[in-house]
Structures are given as structure tokens and as C-alpha cells.
Amino acid sequence: MGLDAVEMIMEIEDRFGITITDEEAQQIVTVGDMVSLIVKRLRAAATRRCFCLPAFFALRRVIRQVVGDDRFRLRPVDDVVARLSPAQRRELWKRLPDLLGTAASELVYPWPVQLIIVAIVALIIGGSVIIAAKLGGGIAFAFLVWTLVGFGWIAVTPNRLQTYPPKGWRTFADITRKIAGSIAATKQLELPDSEAVLVELRAIIVSWLGVDESKVVPEARFVEDLKLG
User: Fold this and answer.
1) pLDDT at position 190, please?
2) What is the pTM of this model?
3) Exposed, middle or buried by CB within 10 Å (0-12, 13-18, 19+), for 36?
4) Between residues 151 and 54, which one has the greater pLDDT?
5) Which residues lie below 8 Å from residue 154, measured CB to CB, with a gap of 6+?
């Protein structure tokens, strides 16, 4: 599944207040499959059972294991960064897939580190271009290639400085809703039937894939018919 597909699924999750597990994602072949999954979550939410409470208790249990304190107290509104150290956040993120049934959004660099990285990248690449212009020939070209490869490696390699939760994951309540969303929708939406769900889903699919909305029908296959990469 390409990055566009991942981003589209994340938008679907946010729109309907659900979490799609890895196993479910592998079973979704057609638009109708996705509609059925969303309807299932909405109907589960309509049972009026509180799915967030057991989700929070499950999260708290994992956090207490990470912290090493079985009496560690936390509230849903607490900020993850304020309550957990960087090492504890990294460990929690390693364990979240077991609660979610899928991978969590990756931790990110804190904004000061992001600014420093951007500044360093700009300085080195700018310096490389200047050196290449002055030296010319194969040496300068090799130096420039080495610089670009080096920064490419940095960009795709996990770093210990990536310790901040991304948007939508910054409080324990945010994470709890993600976990609960794997059971039932966590948003109150006025979508009475499958057709209403399809209308909402169609708008997202058209926006991401650029296909004609007339092609987004229940029997349409994401890969073969809608060219989802």
C-alpha cells in the first residue's frame, strides 16, 4: 500500500471516528467492504455501550508497565509529553500496535529540533552547491551525491529525538479514542444507512484519488478499478 493509500485511510478514520486494524485493511477490497466496516462501527456505537472506558483502562495498564509503577495515576486529559519521559514515550509507541490492532502514527521531532535540522540541511546543501560550482568535475559531483544520500538516510531513519506525539495523539484521551475506534465509532454522526455512509466516503475517495464520483460505487475495487496505489 502506497503512502497516498495510508493517508486516505487515516482521513477516513478521522472522519468517522474509527480505527481500521491491519487485519481489516487487508480484507477491504471494494468500496462496499469499507462501507460495511464503517456501518459496523456506527452500529456498535449505537448500542450505547461505553467503549472508551475499557480502552482507557487497557491503555493505563500498558502505561503503568512502561513507567514501572502499578499505581501510576493519569487522567484522560493529561498531556502525554507532560507525563511521560522521552524514553517512556518511545516505549509506549512500541506497544500501542497491540492495543490498536495497527501501527500508531509515528512520533515526531519537537519543533526546535525540526528547525535545527532544516537549517543544517539548508546550510550543507547550499555549501555543497557552492563547492560543486567552484571545483567542477567528478569530485564535486561525488561530494554532492554523498551529501544528498546522507540526508536521505537521515530522513528515513528513526531517530532518538523523535519523541513527540503527532497531532491527534497528544493526550491520553486522544489515544483512548483511537483504541476505542477499533470497536465502535467515537463520533456522533447522523448517517442513518449505508447510502449515507457511501456519500461521505465517496467525497474522501474522490478527493484523494481524483476519480470521477460516478466510479465510486460499492462494487468498485480500490486497486483494480480506482487505481489505489
Assistant:
1) 87
2) 0.74
3) middle
4) 54
5) 117
Cα–Cα separations (whole angstroms), residue 104 to 73, 88, 94, 167, 178: 23, 15, 9, 12, 9
Range with the poorest average pLDDT among 8-17, 49-58, 81-90: 49-58
pLDDT score of 152 more than 70: no
List Cβ neighbours of 228 (8 Å cut-off, separation of 6 or more): 1, 2, 4, 5, 8, 209, 222
- Same domain membership, residue 143 and residue 120: yes
pLDDT number for residue 156: 56
Question: What is 214-226 written as a DSSP string?
Answer: GG--TT-BTTTTT
Residues 27, 82: one domain? yes
Structural domain of 7: 3-105+168-215
Name the phi and psi angles at 79, rounded to 5.
-80, 130
Residue 122, class by beta-carbon neighbours within 10 Å (0-12 exposed, 13-18 middle, 19+ buried)?
Answer: exposed
